[in-house]
Amino acid sequence: MPPTLRLGGPSESEFPFTTAITYFARASGASRSGDVVADDEDVRQLSRIVDELKAAKDDYWAIEVEVERLGGAAWPPLLAASATRR
Known about the structure:
Layout: H1 16-32, H2 36-55, H3 59-85
């Protein structure tokens, strides 16, 4: 598989949940293209944002970003299992 071009991280926003959307998209794209290391880094960033939102007592957005984190973390094992079935 050809190497993936990775640009710098998303611009930080006054609203962390908007930054999280970019990390989720990057994690999904990275894992689907086979770049598990990049996926892991983006999932870690999502976890950091969840922690920030919880600390700010913004429970609604903390849950929403946690859903994105779980989605980003789910791709690598799913793709690995799919690859072993072929």
